[in-house]
């Protein structure tokens, strides 16, 4: 290897080492049902680079300071939705949230479980009620007509109609940021309505009427109070409040 090649190959590593380190406190709301009567805060001190994700910091705590810490995570690339948490008072994905965006050197990152769902342990919540709502809107393609020889074709305009709702990763950030969901667990919630939107406005699907009937129940779209919490919480930048309003209009048109 020539000197020039050696310098090129070692440059990224050297640049990484040159990044400033941040000394941060990680304040986590802990709860172990086997020994705790109620949740309590525990604080850990961690060194992190500004470009690290909050998930890196949590991993650091679990791997090197307290192996009893419990939380969900999967792909670590912001597309699976497993690691939704309340970070500095806001629903976020830990794998997408940069340390530099939530803490300065010497600062504190607070981490809690998402709200409105039963806490099983630490940051781990029971997702079954959330997925029960998802199942309730029949989140699958329904078409009883004979299949065409090729694909069921859509125009670009038709595909664009459901483009935003197709981006949902079911992380529950939107639903668990909704104050209506906190006080009324029977409300289907923003995520389920977004998933319904995806099929209601799919021109190839034939179950629009059934889904609109589900949306028109007292657990459906009329529970929404347009607080915009869901839209602000979405890590995929889906205009959730707008989509809920579109479903509301579709329900009204069906009744007209």
User: What is the helical fraction, as a range of percent?
Assistant: 25-40%
Beta strand count: 7
Arithmetic mean of pLDDT: 93
For the termini, the CA-CA separation is 76 Å
Kindly report the spatial arrangement of strands forming the biggest sheet: 2-1-5-3-4
**Which stretches are poorly predicted, pLDDT < 50 over at least 5 residues?**
none
Radius of gyration: 22 Å
Order of helices and strands: HEEHEEHEEEHHHHHHH
Number of helices: 10
What's this model, at a glance?
The chain has 256 residues and is an alpha+beta fold. Helices cover 36% and strands 15% of the residues.
Describe this structure in words.
By secondary structure, the chain is α+β, with helices and mostly antiparallel strands. The protein contains ten helices and seven strands. It has helices spanning 3-18, 54-64, 99-102, 128-136, 156-161, 179-183, 190-200, 208-215, 229-233, 240-255, and strands spanning 21-30, 40-49, 84-87, 90-93, 108-112, 119-121, 124-125. The chain has a five-stranded mixed sheet with strand order 2-1-5-3-4. Helix 7 (190-200) packs antiparallel against helix 8, helix 7 (190-200) packs across helix 10 (240-255) and helix 8 packs across helix 10. It is elongated. It starts with a helix and ends with a helix. The relative contact order is 0.12. The mean pLDDT is 93.
Key traits:
single chain, 5-stranded mixed β-sheet, alpha+beta, 256 residues, 10 helices, 7 strands, two-stranded antiparallel sheet, 36% helix, 15% strand
């Amino acid at each position: 290897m020539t000197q020039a090649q050696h310098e090129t190959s070692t440059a990224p590593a050297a640049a990484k080492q040159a990044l400033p380190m941040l000394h941060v406190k990680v304040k986590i709301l802990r709860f172990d049902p086997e020994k705790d009567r109620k949740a309590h805060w525990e604080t850990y001190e961690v060194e992190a680079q500004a470009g690290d994700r909050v998930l890196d910091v949590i991993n650091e705590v679990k791997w090197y300071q307290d192996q009893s810490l419990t939380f969900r995570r999967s792909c670590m690339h912001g597309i699976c939705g497993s690691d939704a948490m309340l970070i500095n008072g806001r629903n976020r994905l830990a794998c997408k949230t940069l340390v530099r965006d939530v803490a300065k050197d010497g600062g504190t990152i607070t981490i809690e479980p998402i709200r409105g769902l039963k806490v099983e342990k630490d940051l781990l919540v029971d997702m079954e009620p959330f997925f029960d709502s998802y199942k309730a809107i029949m989140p699958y393609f329904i078409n009883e007509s004979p299949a065409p020889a090729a694909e069921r074709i859509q125009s670009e305009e038709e595909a664009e109609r459901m483009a935003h709702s197709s981006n949902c990763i079911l992380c529950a950030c939107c639903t668990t940021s909704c104050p209506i969901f906190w006080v009324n667990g029977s409300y289907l919630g923003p995520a389920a309505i977004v998933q319904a939107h995806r099929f209601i406005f799919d021109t190839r699907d034939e179950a629009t009427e059934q889904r609109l009937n589900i949306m028109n129940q007292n657990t459906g779209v009329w529970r929404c109070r347009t607080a915009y919490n869901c839209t602000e919480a979405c890590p995929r930048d889906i205009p959730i409040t707008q989509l809920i309003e579109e479903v509301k209009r579709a329900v009204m048109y069906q009744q007209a």
